[in-house]
Design brief:
This protein has 24 helices and 22 strands. It has 660 residues and is an alpha/beta fold.
């Protein structure tokens, strides 16, 4: 069941209910304070509108918080320094004690969880908030030797009141703006209800997802969102539900501001099967743009919600039907606000047998032959997976590790970050930002040096990025270890040239390299609406140009799309890999010592029986897994291309669809 969030009454409501002062004057001071609890407290106290002791009693009972008398305490300056000075001034707070990992702080607004969570993220300590009046906090800070200002005195308050007379005209404008914002908020609530209903009414209803999202300290079932929950929380739940239902790999939350204020929107796009789709049924009101990003930051438990000028990285943990799913979060500042991308790391996607990962039979036989005889230092060498970002390299290597994983083999991995947890595998998260003694950092090369002393049989390095990592990986391969890693190149033959560019000796590359697997991902034809078609003359020529035989009368396949509910009308559902496996033999090793260019090496591998990426993809097009257009990088299928709108003539460009 969802966690109920009880709203605590505002300070104005507490004072009015307790009848501590004249109701009209209290209302007036609350309006002049514009929701600022600190300023409202100061107005009540400095104008002697309420008695301090009675107000304290009402706040303690109404907010269910503990109060602290700072005047009776001797505060250690080291404790005060635990919280950055800028935060103390911003939130008008004062740390006064630390015991067993719990930091006690005094502040005038202890019910504000955002303040507390921000301090916990900054300090790494559990925070226990206590109530104290702002003037008492300033006095205690000054007594401890820390200057405090920023409007905590009668002089500042009187000066502010004098300025209010000059701002009478602008106050009317602000009031009108607030009324418009309130109206937008009411419309936002209605939009939220419709968006949530739209997600639930889609195929694979939310009630069947069994999704739980890991928030601050509890896990809430987002498929049973309480209609009384905060709007921001419901929006986050809607976005996550939609991504899980669509099986998206990435979630993009992007603000786009219209200078006139009419078409400002917060767009949500989902990357499904490698292509971005606009989630039109998710409408985020523009006024929620900062709150959405702040909530995502809080859920990561590591990001600074007050920092909006620099990029930040973090993670969110989710449970779906008892299976762990993580979101790798990246937030960057833009001219219109912060933009967020969440990469979905579904651990279920790697719990797959390598035999069902889309390899053609002969390619799979060659790959599995490379993984035989592990143990006792009998099978050693370097196996590299290459390809662009998001091409499934890590997933393929995880499949290889799963295949080799057994009790008599020790497997170590160095990853940044660890994307998936594998049972029986020792996984080490490297952190290049972590400074060790001297100028050393904890990067891939440092992890590899340590691995060699841990008696492993199999080692996986997340990525070969520099000469030192490559050199140590090859040394490990020479000393009886089977080493897996990844690198960014276009094809298998280019890996050898790339390593030589890193100043690795050619003889070392030739002697340690065992195999290179290049990989791409292509959209898979929907199994529900797949239909046979006759190949066009252009497609037949493509097969001939790449030396792939196609029998007379052979059929190709395409997704019908249209009203298909399985693929949403796109004609594609899921992705299939395209492989190029270069197995090192004596001829290629001898050529490596003479020629480093990728062209001759690739031709030698083809002469030795290697199937190129294009040839592998065309064979899978013949078997009905994908289309020729996908293999050749055309993107949309012919059916989709026919449905594309014609280009508008100059001066008649249609305005973009308004999302919010």
């Amino acid at each position: 069941m969802p966690t109920e969030i009880a709203r605590k009454k505002s300070l104005k409501e507490l004072v009015l209910e307790a009848e501590l002062g004249d109701a009209k004057k209290v209302e007036a001071e609350a309006n002049r304070s514009q929701g600022n609890t600190v300023l409202f407290l100061l107005r009540l106290l400095l104008k002697n509108m309420v008695e301090r002791e009675k107000l304290l009693d009402v706040i303690v009972k109404g907010w269910d918080v503990k109060a602290v008398d700072l005047s009776t305490l001797s505060i250690d300056s080291d404790v005060i320094k635990l919280v950055p000075d800028i935060l103390q001034k911003r939130y008008t707070l004062l740390p006064f004690a630390k015991e067993e990992g719990i930091l006690s702080i005094a502040l005038p607004d202890p019910k504000n969880l955002l303040f507390v969570e921000d301090i916990e993220l900054r300090t790494g300590l559990k925070v226990q908030p206590y109530f104290a009046f702002p003037d008492e906090i300033v006095e205690a800070a000054q007594k401890a030797g820390f200057s405090r200002s920023a409007g905590f005195s009668k002089v500042d308050l009187v000066a502010e009141e004098e300025e209010e007379a000059e701002q009478a005209a602008s106050e009317k404008e602000k009031k009108e703006g607030k009324e418009q914002e309130a109206s937008a908020g009411e419309g936002a609530t209605e939009a939220l209800e419709k968006a949530l209903e739209a997600v639930r009414s889609q195929k694979g209803a939310a009630s069947e997802e069994g999704l739980e999202i890991g928030a601050i300290a509890v896990k809430t079932d987002v498929t049973e969102v309480n209609t009384n929950a905060p709007e921001v929380e419901k929006l986050i739940n809607i976005i996550i539900l939609a991504s899980m239902r669509e099986k998206a790999s990435d979630i993009h939350v992007e603000p786009f501001e219209d200078p006139k204020g009419k078409k400002s929107k917060v767009g949500v796009r989902l990357r499904v099967d490698g292509f971005l789709r606009e989630a039109k049924y998710i409408k985020i009101p523009w006024v929620f743009r900062n709150a959405i990003i702040a909530k995502i930051k809080i859920m990561t438990k590591t990001m600074n919600i007050t920092e909006r000028r620099t990029p930040q990285s973090g993670r969110i943990q989710v449970m779906a039907k008892g299976n762990p799913v993580e979101f790798r979060v990246e937030i960057v500042p833009t001219v219109h606000g912060e933009s967020c991308v969440m990469r979905v790391l579904d651990r279920r996607s790697v719990q797959v047998d390598i035999n069902s990962m889309g390899f053609l039979p002969d390619t799979l036989v060659k790959l599995l032959a490379l993984l035989q005889g592990i143990g006792g230092k009998k099978n050693f060498g370097l196996i590299i997976a290459c390809g662009p970002t998001g091409s499934g390299k890590s997933t393929t290597l995880y499949g290889c590790l799963n295949y080799t994983n057994r009790p008599d083999i020790k497997i170590l991995t160095a990853e940044n970050p660890v994307e998936y947890n594998l049972d029986g595998v020792i996984q080490v998260p490297v952190n290049p930002e972590l400074k060790l003694s001297g100028d050393k950092v904890f990067d891939f090369s440092a992890a590899l040096r340590s691995f060699l002393r841990l008696d492993p049989d199999v080692i996986m390095v997340g990525e070969i990025r520099d000469r030192e990592t490559a050199h140590i990986a090859m040394e490990a391969a020479m000393t009886g270890h089977l080493v897996f890693s990844t690198i960014h190149t276009n094809d298998a033959a280019s890996v050898i040239a790339r390593l030589v560019e890193m100043k690795i000796p050619a003889y070392l590359v030739a002697s340690t390299m065992k195999a290179i697997l290049a990989q791409r991902l292509s959209r898979r034809i929907c199994s529900e609406c797949r239909q046979e078609i006759d190949p066009t003359p252009a497609e037949i020529n493509i097969f001939k140009e790449h030396n792939v035989s196609i029998a007379p009368g052979a059929k190709l396949y395409r997704g019908r799309g249209g009203d298909c509910t399985n693929c949403g009308g796109s004609g594609f559902k899921g992705r299939c890999p395209i492989h190029e496996l270069l197995v090192m033999d004596d001829n290629i090793r001898a050529l490596c010592l003479k020629e480093m260019a990728s062209g001759p090496l690739k031709q030698a591998a083809i002469d030795g029986g290697m199937r190129t990426l294009t040839q592998d993809g065309l064979n899978k097009a013949l078997s009905g897994m994908t289309t020729v257009r996908e293999v050749m990088g055309g993107g949309a299928s012919e059916a989709e291309a026919e449905e594309q709108p014609k280009e508008e003539p100059p001066g008649e460009v249609k305005p973009p669809e308004q999302v919010a």
